[in-house]
Amino acid sequence: MERKFANFETKSIHTADPRTEAFGSLTVPLYMTSTYVFPSAEVGGARFAGEAEGMIYSRIANPTTDVLEKAMAELEGAEAGLAFGSGMGAISAVLIALVKSGDHILCSDGLYGCTYGLLTMLKEKFNVQFDLVDMADMERVRAAMRPETKVVYVETPINPTLKVVDLEALSEIAHAGGAQVVVDNTFMTPFLQQPLQFGADIVVHSATKYLGGHGDLIAGVAVGRKAFLDEVRFSTLKDIGSVMAPMEAWLILRGLKTLPLRMERHCENAQKVAAFLAAHPKVKQVYFPGFADHPQAEVVARQMRGSGGMIAFEVETLDGGRTLMNSVRLAQLAVSLGEATTLIQHPASMTHAVVPADVRRDEMGIADGLVRLSVGLEHPSDIIADLEQALAKIPVASEALETVHEDGPNSAA
């Protein structure tokens, strides 16, 4: 019997209800199988022809991943979902399915480094053009649209600068120009933001992050219209093969049950940590959607349920940033985000190193001294204390000058 629930917290636990499966298992069974036995040659032929439902091969579908796909569709308010072996697997499959040689993709002026790398490859090898544009300014978006623009691709909040994009206004412009809107919702999760409600066509996630929540898997998900995702399943998923393993699907389903609780704590902790950083004399600038004076505060309030667990901030120098990251004790110096542990990293030399320096600084607004912080689930006072002791190790300008003088060419050291 199909059951519908009004509240996200209940959906996150009960959308993956396995009781229709064999033995009445309370949790979703883990189907570790590569292939499936057909009851007859006729049934096998009908399934391959798309005339009958049923499993064929786990590169196309698996009962465990099938439950995850349905759960994610329910949580995002979509017709269907599709699971992939990584977040980049989801992004690649969706974009390749949507464009051909000569087409154009319009992108937000900040992107995950590997997404930028994919777009560069599509441009150089397959003549798919792309441009970055400041999507905080809808007039610039209108001006950047071309007749050959088929996709408007956006991160919001943007990685790592945390700029926010008005999805409703953006979708109106994109659809008027005949383009589809693809939104990377990794930073927000469906608990904090549901882009399809604001006109987006497809949503992608790196499920590696908050959806899994424990830093122990690599996976991706896309949600949207069933007809489109069926096309992707039997083309770019099947033929390129970025397939999610059933164990990863099982782990994500487990993670979804605690997603609302975890996201509430991530948001609460990040709000306190951001306030601390904003008041610290050695922090030059803090980027965080939860600030009342955020440039898109009205959009944040209308579009997002919370501000998320990500913070970006700048210190005065690149060396100061290195000192900070080498001095933390609780936070871990690692890429990725969205797990229980607080993670800290340097985008310019790590996640966004593939982006040319001029594009990274001038078009994306990623300063060399920018630090990205994924605020974890530890007690906020412990996170703050760790950052405070690490920031204390960054010398002030006068101290740095004295150190240079003492350790110069005539120094005994």
TrEMBL record:
The modification N6-(pyridoxal phosphate)lysine is found at residue 209. Its cofactor is pyridoxal 5'-phosphate. Keywords: Lyase, Pyridoxal phosphate. It is an enzyme of class 4 (lyase). Pfam families: Cys_Met_Meta_PP. One of its GO terms (molecular function) is homocysteine desulfhydrase activity. Its EC number is 4.4.1.11, 4.4.1.2. SUPFAM superfamilies: PLP-dependent transferases (SSF53383). It catalyses: L-homocysteine + H2O = 2-oxobutanoate + hydrogen sulfide + NH4(+) + H(+); L-methionine + H2O = methanethiol + 2-oxobutanoate + NH4(+). GO terms for cellular component: cytoplasm. It comes from the Bacteria. One of its GO terms (biological process) is transsulfuration. Belongs to the trans-sulfuration enzymes family. L-methionine gamma-lyase subfamily. This is L-methionine gamma-lyase. It comes from Tumebacillus permanentifrigoris.
